[in-house]
Design goal:
The protein is an all-alpha fold and about 525 residues long. Helices cover about 65% and strands about 0% of the residues.
């Protein structure tokens, strides 16, 4: 990342306000840490309620109401806050952001190196594999360091941007907190009592490998595979939640609740970027419903068999990829090169199809980039070059070292082999993109005249992505993930381009329910 721009100097009154905000941030971090410590065994208790057969009505268990519907959601929400706040605080120290969604995305990106470095230091000092207590110490240390850096910059009179903008800020925070809270209850048996599928077990083992390694190991004889399937970033949150709540079945599934919260924030940022107004409460509610439909589709259907679907993988993996890709597009259009390149690298490590999204964004820039065309093309070219360097470093150096020189399986070239066999007689596959986004948003792709340049770019990326994955003989719902969520942003931008209407949010809500 390039150096952060110098922060503006603050007046004495502004300085006191900034110090007060740092104090609130410290209180939020300390409070979430306390809740995590008090409730960290709650998830294990929930997971152990039904070691054998699940009850006939697993969503309604009044005899365990306090544990299932109060303690467990609070524990998961506190864990999300505890894990993300160090990165968010460091993002504020680097300059901050006046918008809540981009600030959370920046915090997510910084959380990966922060926690990894802190864990490496703790393991080096303590010796042996990472333990739950050691992990809590590591996060407490990097959170304290980030808070100290922010406080130091504020005390020097520097003025980071904060996304605190009246009642709308608190309402938006409420929606973000509601996403993982509702998801815990909505996916209750699937998170805590469902046996892990083969893909879920793979995610679990990769996360567990980080107790002794800095980079994840795959459950293969060599311990490594190429980037033809991605999956690298998802292993770290699996490890984090496993350290907090125990290495059991919920560990690889709980991160998807945090990803859903970040996806909501990312979509909000994409919709409101350079729009004439911001989302109102009812429109935010429709966005919540669309994200819920997306979560249900990925949680229950995104596999080659309904009995193989698992929130751990591919569900959690693809929800993370969706959030990263939304962030990638946002930082491209907001011209924040450092963050764009960081999200490009993370997106490519998550799923190789990030390269396709980058190529389509380049094509969209040619058609709709306007005066920003050359800048966007330059950014996309840099991101593609970075992805090639990441691929070469990972597959030719790391994977070969781990595998004692053996050729890693699922390398980047294997992606091309998936297009060896084609078929052209299954138009029902379009439903893979239409339904999980909430039905109504996909119709917004047809409203070309009402779309601005950004909405048209998103529409082009969506159509191009669908056409690429519509015809391979072996495809599945989760291959269409970007095409599921980008129409939501298109619909939102079309909505904000016109005066507020009570009817359109109702249509969007009805579409989500039908989907």
């Amino acid at each position: 990342m390039t150096a952060a721009p110098a922060l503006p100097l603050a007046s004495p009154a502004r300085l006191r306000s900034q110090i007060g905000r740092v104090g609130w941030l410290l209180g939020a971090f300390a409070g979430s840490a306390a809740i995590v410590i008090l409730t960290m065994r709650a998830v294990a208790r929930v997971a152990g309620l039904f070691p054998d057969a699940v009850p006939a009505h697993p969503y309604f268990l009044p005899q365990h109401a306090g544990l299932l519907y109060v303690v467990a959601p609070i524990a998961v929400l506190a864990a999300c806050v505890f894990l993300l706040l160090p990165g968010v605080t460091l993002a504020l120290a680097l300059g901050g952001d006046a918008r809540l969604g981009p600030l959370l995305l920046k915090g997510l990106a910084l959380t990966f190196p922060l926690h990894t470095l802190a864990e490496w230091v703790v393991r080096t000092v303590h010796g042996g594999p990472m333990t739950p207590d050691g992990f809590l110490v590591a996060v407490a240390v990097d959170g304290t360091v980030a808070l100290g850096l922010l406080a130091w910059r504020v005390r020097r009179g520097r003025q980071p941007e904060w996304p605190v903008q009246g009642s709308a800020f608190w309402r938006r925070l409420g929606w973000l907190a509601l996403v993982p809270t509702v998801a815990v209850v909505g996916f209750l048996p699937d998170i805590f009592w469902q046996d892990l599928s083969a893909d879920g077990w793979e995610a679990f083992e990769m996360g567990r490998s980080l107790t002794t390694h800095v980079l994840p190991r795959f459950p293969t004889p060599s311990g490594a595979v190429g980037l033809g399937i991605g999956m690298v970033p998802m292993t770290y949150p699996v490890h984090w939640f496993g350290m907090i709540f125990g290495l059991a079945e919920p560990a690889p599934r709980l991160p998807c609740l945090m990803y859903l919260m970040l996806l909501y924030a990312a979509l909000t940022a994409l919709i409101e970027l350079a729009s004439p107004r911001v989302l109102r409460a009812t429109e935010e509610g429709v966005l919540f419903l669309c994200v819920a439909v997306f979560a249900v589709a990925l949680g229950f259907n995104a596999s080659y068999s309904a009995y193989f679907a698992d929130l751990a993988s591919p569900g959690g993996l693809d929800i993370l990829t969706a959030a990263l890709l939304a962030g990638l597009i946002y930082f491209l259009w907001s011209a924040e090169l450092s963050w764009f390149l960081l999200f490009a690298g993370l997106s490519y490590l998550a799923r190789p199809t990030a390269l396709l999204v980058l190529l389509l964004l380049g094509i969209a820039a040619l058609g709709f980039g306007g005066r920003h065309r050359s800048q966007q093309l330059r950014y996309v070219a840099l991101a593609l070059g970075l992805s090639v360097l990441v691929m070469l470093g990972y597959e030719l150096i790391f994977a070969r070292l781990v595998g004692d020189g053996a050729h890693p399986g699922y390398d980047s070239q294997s992606v091309i082999e998936r297009f060896r066999y084609l078929q052209f007689h299954d138009p029902a596959r379009l439903l893979f993109a239409v339904l999980p986004g909430g039905l109504a948003p996909f119709a917004a792709l047809l409203a070309f005249r009402r779309q601005d340049a950004m909405a048209r770019s998103l529409a082009l990326v969506t159509v191009g992505y669908v056409l690429v994955f519509l015809f391979p003989a072996f495809t599945n719902m989760h291959h269409f993930v970007p095409a599921m969520i980008l129409p939501i942003a298109v619909a939102g931008r079309v909505l904000l381009a016109r005066p507020y209407s009570r009817t359109l949010p109702l249509v969007g809500a009805l579409g989500a329910v039908l989907a």
